[in-house]
Structures are given as C-alpha cells and as structure tokens.
Amino acid sequence: MTERLYYTDSFLYEFDAHVLEILPASQAEARPAVILDRTAFYPTSGGQVFDTGSIVSREGGAQIQPKVIEVAERDDGAVLHFLDEATPLRAGLEIHGTIDTARRRDHMQQHSGQHVLSAAFIRLFNMPTVSFHMGDDYCSIDLETKSANPHQLAEAEKLANEIILEDRPVDIHFVTQQEAQGLGLRKLPPIDKGELRLIDIRDFDLTACGGTHVGRTGQIGCILLRKTEKVRQGIRVEFVCGQRAVRTARQDYIALAEAAGLLSSHIWDVPQQIRKSQEEAKAPRRQREKLLEELAEQQAFHMLAETPEQNGRKLIVEVFPDRDLPYIKLLAQKLTRSKSGVIALLGTTMGSPSVVTASSAGESCDLGALLKEALTTYGGRGGGSKDMAQGGVPEPESAQKLLSELAGRLGGARPQARG
Question: Which residue among 71, 182, 239, 413 is least crowded, i.e. fewest CB within 10 A of its CB?
Fold first, then answer.
C-alpha cells in the first residue's frame, strides 16, 4: 500500500520516498512504471485526472531523472507511476519526486470549484450531482434533473462565486463510515471504505472525496458556466474555474470581438446582427425556391403535353445532365400530382448520379420495390414508397441504363437526355 501524501497536504509539490518495485515495459503495458512507499502524485480517480512531474535519484554518482507521464491506482492500493522511458531505478533506492505545480494547482481549482458548484445546485434547486468529469480544457457535472433553465444556471453560478469571494476555509477531516452517517454529507460513498476523507467547505458543503483541493475558496478564483446539454443521467453542465476561466473568457471575447468587427457592430449587438443577416439571407433563398417551383411547373406542363398517352397512362423517362437531385424530385412531384395516370422516371448526372421514380395516386405498380431491385443490379442504393422512390448509382451511364430497364418493364420508351 502506498502512503498518499496529498491526502493531508494538497500543496505538497516535492517529497522524498523509496522505490518499492519496478514494473518494466511489457506486451500488456508498453510503459515502465515504478511503485513508491509514499507519493504526492495523484492517480486518476473520482473524476479528477492524474498529476505529472518527475522522479530524481542518484545511482553510482549519476543522476537519474525520468518523467512521470501518468499515475494510476492498482486494485491493491499501490500507486503506479508510469515513466516516459526505461529506467535503471531499483527497489530500495531513495528518490525525490517533483509535481508539475501548474497542473496540480489547476486541478485543485477545478475540483474544489466543482464541490462549490454542486453544493450550489443542491441548495438552490435540489439538483444533485451524479458524476463529475475533468478534462484538459473544461470540466462538467451531470445533474439529476429533467431540465435546468438559464435563470437557474445563472443563480447557481452567482452563489458559487459568492462563496469563492467569501474565501471560506476548506478543511480536511478523516472519519469512519459510521461517524459520517450523522454529519449531513452531501453525498456518501456507495460502499463502505472504512475511514473516509471529508472535504469541508466551511458552513456550505461537506462531502467525501479523495482528490486534491484548495485551502480556501478564494484560491479557486472564479467559476464560469459554459453550456448545458441533455444526457442520459439528466443535464450536463460544462464549467471552468480559476485560470481556465480567465483563459476561456479571453478566448470568448476575442472571438466575439472579431465577429463584431466583421458585422461592424458592438459585441453586445452580435446576436441581433446575426439574426438580421440570417433573415436577409432567407429572402434570396425563398425567391430562388419560388423560381424553381415555377420552372418545374412550366417544364412539367410541356413534358406532359409532349408525351403521348398509351393505354390510359403517360410514362415520362428523361435524364438531366444540368439539374440536381432536389430539382428532379420537384419535377417528378409536379408531373405526377398535376394529372392522374402519370409515371415519371427521371435521372440526373449532375454531381452524384441519381434517379427518381414517381407515379400519380392510384397506379398499381410499386415503384419503390422496382427501383430497389434495379439499384442492386447496378451497385446503387436507395428506396422509397410505392408512389415515390430515389437512389444513387456509381456511374452516369448507370442512370441511363437503369431507367431504360425500368421503362422496359413498365412498357415504355428508353430515357432521353436533355442538354
């Protein structure tokens, strides 16, 4: 069992220890690792990620200084310090460990900030935290609730930052599981772990936790809520604390200021300007859609007029090299909805070669099934309903051949190509 020095002092960045065991690289684990009798390196656990740093020792007058690139906990309680390279360290050797101070301080700010934020959601809205994740750029908590509106998020953020501003003490206590039952913990561990380590934010939050934490809430700096999303457990709230919050706010401001400059507006007016631009962009699109609608109606009228009726039905088969798939779908609808007894077999070789089949209501043929069968022959994919279906084929020539085959099965002519 490795003695964990960070349990009692999260600000311990250097320590002395002895090597208990060396685990050389293997097929199962490509990185060598070392087990120490005591360590200040935090292993990934409870949502908090591991510390990094270095181990220094002198063996035979030569200094050995491998880097610690990851720290993990083994089932028997030993802490594995994974190294960046093979090392001549040996069991019994005395080492001096150094923690990456900036990384540790960042993790302390994020983890303590999470405790404050989770307690704020409980106090204000009775929304318990069911999980916590710490990433390299942001952190998140999952709240057990069906919804969280912007007002609730703002209120929880406000209360959390008030607790930070008050610079309350953050104390560490060790109690038994039985003693913890009557202390009003925000969350008890799911299993009996014997002695519990409690993080006590004075008169605000008390919870069991094995992570590294600040000594006073003022050291968190600040908490900035970023966004929310619906997840299986409830609502996920993304946040950042301390220097991360400052960096994130700076990045947000730079992006917003650049957007404001492009729109020739104040940063606070950017949303309004974007909405205005979106509305202005819709007008040409609506006009284009109207023109295409009119064009399709006119083209359908002429195609119907030019196509002779055979056995009480008009079968229209054409391939368009200069019209895209959305247009030929629109054209197929115009052809088959303006008159009964019409079957349209249309194709396009513009972009990805595609075909569309459509029929007026009441036709007995199942175009969806026919097209799906034909597409299999030509290496294409698609499908649809009895009255309308579509699909893609690998080559332009395949569209011509496929429609010709369908036309033959329906008793019509070969497809024409329009220039």
Answer: 182
- Bridge partners, 14 (sequence order): 98
Could you count the other beta carbons within 10 Å of the beta carbon of residue 8?
10
Q: Nearest CA to 34 among 69, 76, 75?
A: 69
At 244-300, the pLDDT tens digits run 999 999 999 999 999 999 989 999 998 898 898 888 888 888 888 899 999 999 999
Sign for the pseudo-dihedral over CA of 344, 345, 350, 352: positive
Pairing between strand 223-231 and 234-241?
antiparallel
Strands (E), 86-216: 94-99, 129-134, 139-143, 170-176, 195-201, 205-208
Say if CB 353 and CB 324 are below 8 A apart. no
Residue 15 Cα distances to 39, 44, 61, 70, 97, angstroms? 7, 19, 21, 17, 5
- pLDDT (tens digit per residue) in 187-244: 877 666 678 999 999 999 999 999 999 999 999 999 999 999 999 989 999 999 999 9
CA distance 166 to 194: 33
Q: In terms of DSSP bridges, do strands 388-392 and 381-384 run parallel, antiparallel, or are they unpaired?
A: antiparallel
Cα distance between residue 231 and residue 257, in whole Å: 32
pTM exceeds 0.90:
no
Radius of gyration of the chain, Cα coordinates, nearest whole angstrom:
34
